[in-house]
Structures are given as structure tokens and as C-alpha cells.
């Protein structure tokens, strides 16, 4: 699905740190400037249990508790983004997980402050995108 110019959908989050710092508008502008079609968007306030469910794949990792506490610490914006090769395109726009290692101009370089407080999240594969989109959007909410 991510070959050529085929349309693809990915999942993205503007994390609580970026929402609290007032960066949502700038990040949404960057999404639009990059040519993504915003096919779903919602402000959410995750509970600890919801964050644990979303990040269940990381349950055995040492950062799991800190990550789920952070992701349930304030409002976040969840998005469904469509574009040709959307997964790779969004990950390139976000930049490296560690803002200190991210390329100039990427969202994490511009708005992130640490590996955990890195402003944005994005799916890393079609299967991950399907799970993550389904976690936050019912089928009737997305066409």
C-alpha cells in the first residue's frame, strides 16, 4: 500500500506537552503545508488505563509507566492523516524520536524537549496504523 503514489492513511498524535505549550496550531499548519488530508481529528484526554491500552506493546519496557503517565497528563489531539505514502511522510515530518537527534525543521526538533516529551507520535507500519486508528476512531467516523 505504500508503494508508488498510492493513498495511505496514518495515525498521528499531538502529545500533551505540545498541546500544553500552545504548539497545536503550528503543528496542524505543518500537517497541511506538507500536503496531508486531515480525515479525522479529535481532542482527547486519555485515562491512565486508556494510555496503557494504547501503548500495550511497550508494557514490558522500563519507560512504560512514565510514558503512560505522561500521555494521560493532559489533552492530546489524535488525527487520521491521508497522503501518498502517509506513514513514511509523517515520520519524516516528525523527525527522530529524540529531538536532539532530529533533523532541523522537523516537528520534534522544533517542538520536542526530550525523548518522551517529543511533541508528536506517528504509526510506524500499516498494521500499527490500523490498530491505532481503530483505537481512537470508530469506523463510521472515517470514510
Q: What does it look like?
A:
This protein has helices at residues 16-20, 24-33, 48-54, 64-71, 86-94, 107-111, 126-136, and strands at 7-14, 37-44, 76-84, 120-122. The protein is α+β, with helices and mostly antiparallel strands. The protein has a domain at 7-45 and 77-130: Alpha-Beta Plaits, CATH 3.30.70. Strands 2-3-1-4 form a 4-stranded antiparallel β-sheet, with helices on both faces. It is globular and about 40 Å long.
SSE inventory with pairings:
Blueprint lengths: L6 E8 L1 H5 L3 H10 L3 E8 L3 H7 L9 H8 L4 E9 L1 H9 L12 H5 L8 E3 L3 H11 L7
Antiparallel strand pairs: 1-3, 1-4, 2-3
Concise account of the structure shown:
By secondary structure, the protein is α+β, with helices and mostly antiparallel strands.
Read across the widest sheet, the strand sequence of neighbours is 2-3-1-4
- Low-pLDDT runs of 5+ residues are none
User: What is the residue-averaged pLDDT?
Assistant: 94
Could you give me the name of the CATH homologous superfamily of the domain at 7-45 and 77-130? Nucleoside diphosphate kinase-like domain
The CATH topology assignment of the domain at 7-45 and 77-130 is: Alpha-Beta Plaits
Largest sheet: 4 strands, antiparallel
Q: Which shape, going by the Cα principal axes? A: globular
Topology as a string of helices (H) and strands (E): EHHEHHEHHEH
Instruction: Identify the CATH architecture of the domain at 7-45 and 77-130.
Output: 2-Layer Sandwich
Overall SS class: alpha+beta
Q: How many beta strands in the DSSP annotation? A: 4
CATH class term of the domain at 7-45 and 77-130:
Alpha Beta
Helix content: 25-40%
